[in-house]
Amino acid sequence: MHQNPRPAPRSAASANNPATNPERTNNQRDTREAPPQRTRSSVDLALYTERASGAAESSRDAVAAEKERETSKLNQIIQNFHTKAALMICSSRATLPQAYGKNGEARQNKWFNVVLNETEALLEDLQDWRRPDLYDDPPPPLEIEVYLDASQISQTQALTIIDEQGKRWDVADSLRTSADSSPRLDGAPEREIVIERWIIEMGEASRYKAAQLNDALPNVYKKGVILFRSLFTFSRLLPAWKLHRRLSRQPSSVQPLKLRFRIRQRRSGSLASLDQDPLQTPLYPTHLHDSDTNITEHHAFPPLLCAAAPLSISVDYRTNCDFHIADAEALLSSRFAGLDAFASYSEESSGRAGRHLRDLGLTPPRGEITTARARRLLGDPTSRQRDLLGTGRSVPLRSPPVGSSSRGAREAGLAGGALASLGTYHTATQRQSPVSALQHRVTGSDSSSMDDKPSDRGGTPQSIPNSGKRDFLKNPPFKAGSVATSPRNAPSPSTSAPRPTALPSSSFQSKRLSLNTLPQQALRNPSMSEAPSPGSSSPKPAPVQRYSSSFANRKKYIRPGESTTSSGRGSSSSKEKSGNIEGTPGSSGSVRTDEDDIAAFISTVERSKDAFSSPVRNNTPSTINLSKFKGMTTASSELAEEMSSSSLIQTSLTPPSRRLSNVPGLSVSSSPSRAMAHAPHVRSRLSTQSIAEEREERRELERAQEESDEDEPFIFQQDNLED
Amino acid sequence: MKDIVKALLHTIFFHRIFTALPPTTHEILDTTLPLITNPTSIPTTLETHLSTLLRYLDTPSQSTSTPSATLTLQFLERRRPRKTGWFGGKGEEETVWETWVIEVRVRGIERREMEAELQEGVKRVMGAVGGEAAGVVPPITEGGVEGGVFPWVMGVKRGTGG
Prior knowledge:
The complex is a heterodimer.
Chain A: H1 10-16, H2 21-33, H3 43-54, H4 59-91, E1 108-109, E2 116-117, E3 142-149, E4 157-162, E5 168-170, H5 171-181, E6 192-202, H6 210-213, H7 217-235, H8 239-249, E7 258-265, E8 296-300, E9 304-305, E10 310-318, E11 323-327, H9 328-337, H10 345-350, H11 352-362, H12 371-378, H13 381-391, H14 408-424, H15 429-443, H16 446-457, H17 464-484, H18 486-489, H19 491-495, H20 502-524, H21 526-530, H22 541-544, H23 549-557, H24 573-587, H25 594-608, H26 626-645, H27 647-653, H28 656-662, H29 670-685, H30 688-708, H31 715-722
Antiparallel strand pairs in A: 1-2, 3-6, 3-7, 4-5, 4-11, 6-10, 8-10, 9-10
Helix pairs in contact in A: 2-7, 3-4, 4-7, 9-20, 9-26, 12-14, 13-14, 14-20, 14-31, 15-16, 15-20, 15-23, 15-26, 15-27, 15-28, 16-20, 16-26, 16-29, 17-20, 17-26, 17-29, 17-30, 20-23, 20-24, 20-26, 20-29, 23-24, 23-25, 24-25, 24-30, 24-31
Chain B: H1 2-14, E1 24-28, E2 31-35, H2 41-58, E3 68-79, E4 93-105, H3 111-129, E5 152-158
Antiparallel strand pairs in B: 1-2, 3-4, 3-5
């Protein structure tokens, strides 16, 4: 078909354009150099024939007509350059509705020899760049912003991002921090995270020599083909592509995150007015780790030189798009445990938390708890408590509230609230199950192991993506701990736990879980902690009974010396924390019964009242390396998730005393067996070597903890609990 | 590892095929890279050469401890000289206008490194084909292009730095 030499209607361009590039190119090229070879329905052909024939007569007209055609073609190229680039970018970041032609067949855009399904979703947005006079009136740069829309995540969920070290960060906190510091133009800044910004524009023609620009159109088209191939390839190399794939795999009902894009004109001043580019908003403290990677990277494609201007595509993109949805409770608990470097970004920005965060996330905390953080945790318990109670979630012991407090004070509040609310917290059934699971685990009960198993497996669905991986990594530590660490094994011997191997992992997880569920557990099953060690002295069980058995698990890891002290401290969340912190150093090498652990823990808690050392950090039960804490946190949170969801756990939770007594028997439910199943499963993932390493690390950590851990972050909690 | 080389080659071809094609991709090391399925001559020939390459790699050469091999891919251009000359027929020459050399060395690195290296390789391909280098591509003429691709020749040999 002949393409009208006059500027063809835009809509017809893609369909009518001789899409087979070789032909078109061939025609133009050959005709330029030699007499027209073939008759093709293309503008070029008409052009050439006209040229040849018109040379003699109305050469001027011919030249003018030719120029007109050239211009129209150039316009087309420019138009389609923009459109095709937008289509390619958007289709690789979102699923676009298919456009259909007259006959019902799917329309496709074949420009630049890349066939993409045409869509009408972009037509409206791209009107500015579909004018036929782009050559004369260059349009503004076309900007496509790809952002993550988190407005649909529920209250109980939080958006997290995992950084290079595998630490999880709460995105909402970070956003709030930056939002406070800089105004934003777009609405709902807290719910949007800009991931990429593509700019398609006609650049400065002055930068290039005329010879470069005046390339023959077929050559231009040919180069355009290559450019778009590269664009296609590159768009799939960026992290946003993986995010898109991951999100699109899950049904939208399950996945609240949505990747969206917006097309607009890039006004030169649009970003200048912002103090902070939303794309550049750091989602986690970057100075915490030695990152050569910046928050964003820039890539510019070599421009396509045409007579009008160099057509260029460039993109600024975030290097880290590892977003996940995590259950807020799990986050809180994990934070509480200090395993997660969840310290709010605000803390980081405030500077005080920097050290703490570093301690939390980066290096194994040597028992140092940032005072600031401790203060934060302690402070303002009421507000947090209210929040926590309101939601009915178990209050994580210390982790900064997920997304709820971007400020340290809030974090402290949460921690305080969590602690304060421990006493009042009624075990959310969900929570309890993990805790009970933990307890069972500690005591070797089947139920606990059962609980642990679910969490071992991978925790909540939301956190599965990241936690799952970490489970593999971290779970082994648990397992290894169980096998290697004597303290871990202590409960088993004493409690005749049926599955010693499973215990460690479960205990780890249970420890984590206990963080969350502690309040409930502690309240409900004071005796649970006692249960693990049937043989333990009765006084210990009594005080401990107030606290969840998970605590008991932790106790195992607590320093051996602890056992003598307050056994009745119970499982206040603070205690848990302190127990964890202290437990690590103390547990090394000591065979403890649950009772001993509990007692030790209590003593630790009491001792730690004075100093608020790393509050969150050491929550992980004993031996685990701080570096592994992260994994543990994840695991625990996941574990908590799973446990809470499993009904079995709940049932097992109910009779604490019974549980305690049954611990050895493990007769409560099948969950323990299941948990056990998980444990081996997890273990299998790890190589024995790594497990052994972890064991060693854990032991070292314990020792280190022992030395450095002086403070009990949640002393106040203990007080609260006791009240 | 063979997949990596295969992925790189597919990417190269992807950038050198000039027919309109719906891009297809395949996953390699958690990365999505273009895959050439059509014309099918490409994948099949690729397979042949890749197995040769692997064979070379499996049997380490005597000189070096690490097995290595080099795969070269050359794109040719068939030119039809203007002057038909006295020979009557159209003389066609095949000139190489682009040569890709892929050196493969076997070594044990972990998966993430492999991923990174693959991405690095792909980016290099993109850099090589884009921009000014795009002008290197000779004009696409009917005769010189078969199935949208320039004639190409692939060779495998042992060792590196050949």
